[in-house]
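A.,

Following up on our hallway conversation. C-alpha cells first:
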C-alpha cells in the first residue's frame, strides 16, 4: 500500500479566493498519479511545521492542501512564497483523541457508544474544537460540553450508517 511511501516537493503558496481557506499548496500531477483514489488524508511537514490534513479537490481537477493562517505564520510563509512539503498517506479514519476526551469517554459508557457512531469527520471537528485552546481547564470543559451535546442527540443526523466502521 502507498502508506509507507513518502512524497516531497517544493511549490508556491497559492491564493484561492473561491474557497473557505485563502491559501493552498497544489499537489503536483506526478505525485497525484501515485496517490490512492478517493478520500486521502496525509501527515507531514510544511517548512518543518507538522500537519495532518485531507487533500482537497477543486472542480477543475486540482488537488491541494489548505493552509491555515496559523500554519502560514508558523511556517513563516505568505501567499506567493515557496514552501517545502513532505508527507505520507495515513488512514483517513485514524483519529488521535486529546487526553480530556479520552477521560470523558472512559467514564461514560453511553457517551462512548454514541461517540463511536459519529462520523469520523464530525469526530475530527469536535476534537479540533477541544484542541484549539491551550488551557487545560477549558479543554476539559469543552470535552464535557461536547459529550452532553452528543448525548442530547444534537448530532444524530451525523451518525455513521449501519455497517460503516
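Then the amino acids I'd put at each of the 165 positions:
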Amino acid at each position: 500500500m502507498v502508506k509507507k511511501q513518502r512524497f516531497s516537493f517544493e511549490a508556491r503558496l497559492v491564493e484561492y479566493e473561491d474557497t473557505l481557506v485563502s491559501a493552498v499548496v497544489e499537489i503536483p500531477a506526478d505525485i497525484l498519479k501515485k496517490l490512492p483514489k478517493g478520500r486521502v488524508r496525509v501527515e507531514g511537514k510544511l517548512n518543518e511545521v507538522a500537519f495532518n490534513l485531507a487533500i482537497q479537490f477543486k472542480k477543475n481537477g486540482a488537488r491541494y492542501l489548505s493552509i491555515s493562517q496559523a500554519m502560514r505564520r508558523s511556517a513563516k510563509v505568505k501567499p506567493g512564497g515557496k514552501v517545502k512539503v513532505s508527507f505520507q498517506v495515513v488512514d483517513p479514519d485514524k483519529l488521535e483523541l486529546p487526553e480530556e476526551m479520552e477521560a470523558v469517554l472512559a467514564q461514560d459508557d453511553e457517551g462512548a457508544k454514541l461517540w463511536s457512531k459519529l462520523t469520523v469527520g464530525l469526530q475530527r471537528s469536535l476534537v479540533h474544537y477541544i484542541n484549539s485552546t491551550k488551557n487545560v481547564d477549558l479543554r476539559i470543559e469543552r470535552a464535557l460540553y461536547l459529550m452532553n451535546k452528543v448525548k442530547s442527540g444534537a448530532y444524530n443526523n451525523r451518525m455513521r450508517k449501519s455497517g460503516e466502521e
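The helical segments are 29-32, 69-75, 99-106, 109-117, 120-131, 136-152. Curious whether your intuition agrees with the design.

B.
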